[in-house]
Amino acid sequence: MANVKARLTGKRVALLAANGIHEHEFWTPYYRLKEEAATLIVAGPQKGTTYRGEGIHGLDGLLLAPTDAAISELNADELDALVIPGGIYGPLELRDHTATLELVRKLDSKKKIIAAICHGPWVLVSAGILRGRRATSPTDMAVDIQNCGAEWVKQDVVRDGHIITAEYFGRLPQFLRAVVDAIEG
């Protein structure tokens, strides 16, 4: 088999974790970004915490990877991208977390890649960075995207400049192709 060059060598990507994050939307990007040799930083509200995924009832799922850093410790200048998994309870916690919203705003101002899947765009709504942009999500949060001044579109994945959104976990292959392409580019 021929050697395949890892596409994200030297790139630093933060992957957010919180209780209630959808496990597929955490673990699939986790391994895909590692496969491309990105330096992956798992970050949550607290450093050194192992959060529990969404599971069946919201907070009874698989354990996520322990956090390497608290979100408040992350420096937007030192990141190339941020990935926000969905789920229900995880994004609800993150959209009410001041340090998360500040990081998202700083990354947006620097035009760094910000990718959110499923209900992850709730964080972008709360950070106030979607006004005038196009985004997708599950249909149950389309009104949230529209009410913040963005255009909601029913597509698998939407890239609007440096912001990438995807409908739900069934779109992970397309989402991660767009994320890897954007970070590499």
What order do the strands of the largest sheet run in, or round the barrel if closed? 3-2-1-4-5-9-8
Average of per-residue pLDDT values: 96
Number of helices: 6
**Overall structural domain count:** 1
Helix percent band:
25-40%
Biggest β-sheet: count, sense, barrel? 7 strands, mixed
The proportion of strand residues reads: 15-25%
CATH class: Alpha Beta
- Based on CA atoms alone, the radius of gyration comes out at 15 Å
Poorly predicted ranges (pLDDT <50, ≥5 residues)? Answer: none
Q: Outline, from the CA principal axes?
A: globular
Strands, count: 9
| CATH level-4 homologous superfamily | Class I glutamine amidotransferase (GATase) domain
CATH architecture descriptor: 3-Layer(aba) Sandwich
Model description:
The chain is α/β, with parallel strands linked by helices and 185 residues long. It has one domain (12-184): Rossmann fold, CATH 3.40.50. It has six helices and nine strands, in the order E-H-E-E-E-H-H-E-H-E-H-E-E-E-H. The chain has helices at 23-35, 89-95, 98-109, 121-127, 142-147, 172-184, and strands at 12-16, 39-44, 69-70, 81-84, 113-117, 134-135, 151-152, 157-160, 163-166. The protein has a seven-stranded mixed beta sheet, sandwiched between helices. A hairpin with a 2-residue loop joins strand 8 (157-160) and strand 9. Helix 2 (89-95) packs parallel to helix 4 (121-127) and helix 3 (98-109) crosses helix 4 (121-127). It is globular, with a radius of gyration of 15 Å. The model has no long low-confidence stretch (mean pLDDT 96).
